[in-house]
Amino acid sequence: MMTATLDELIAIQQQLIRYAERKQTVLIEHKVDELTELVKEETRLIRRLGQLEDERERLVTEVLEEHPGLSFSQFAEQLTDESAKQALQEQLKTLQQLLTELQLKNRHNEKLVIDSMGFVKEMIEHVTAPKKQPYNYQPQSGVKKPQTDNRGFFDTKA
């Protein structure tokens, strides 16, 4: 049971990594609709991951109740079947590596999102900021018309 649960956890982690890679491309290309679909699929996978994690915790608790005073790592070390012991250790190692890789990809994607949001904010501020100088030529006569309105670009165009 434990190895089957760990195998499924590994498969989901690998799928999440593929989604993170696709999200990176979608974020760079600004494809909002694809991003929305990816997030929906990712949410579905995360729910399944939570269910599997609950199952894994239940199985570990059962094992530790049968072998009091041992941690799960100690239990794995004491397995007499070498192939089962090696398979379990390999699964745990793979799962840990996948989790680290997924965290790195998600951090990178988070930076892309923050950069994109900063760019959009700067563009909005630039477009909506009040004009500091007239957009057209004003002859230098002795009398300047005082500029009474502080409208931004959108207000001026409207």
Could you characterize the architecture of this molecule?
This protein has helices spanning 2-29, 32-66, 72-77, 82-128, 153-157. The protein contains 5 helices and no strands. The mean pLDDT is 84. With 158 residues, it is mainly α. The chain is rod-shaped, with a radius of gyration of 28 Å. Helix content is 77%, strand content 0%.
Topology of this protein?
Layout: H1 2-29, H2 32-66, H3 72-77, H4 82-128, H5 153-157
Helix pairs in contact: 1-2, 1-4
Briefly characterize the structure.
This protein has helices at residues 2-29, 32-66, 72-77, 82-128, 153-157. By secondary structure, it is mostly helical. Helix 1 (2-29) packs antiparallel against helix 2 (32-66).
Multimeric organization:
single chain
SSE ordering: HHHHH
Number of H- or I-type helical stretches: 5
**Structural Rg:** 28 Å
What form results from the Cα inertia axes? rod-shaped
Poorly predicted ranges? none
Distance between the termini: 67 Å
Helical content (DSSP H or I, runs of 4+): over 70%
The tally of beta strands, per DSSP, is: 0
- Assign the structural class, choosing from mainly alpha, mainly beta, alpha/beta, alpha+beta, or little secondary structure: mainly alpha
Strand content: under 5%
Instruction: Quote the average pLDDT.
Output: 84
Major β-sheet, in short? none
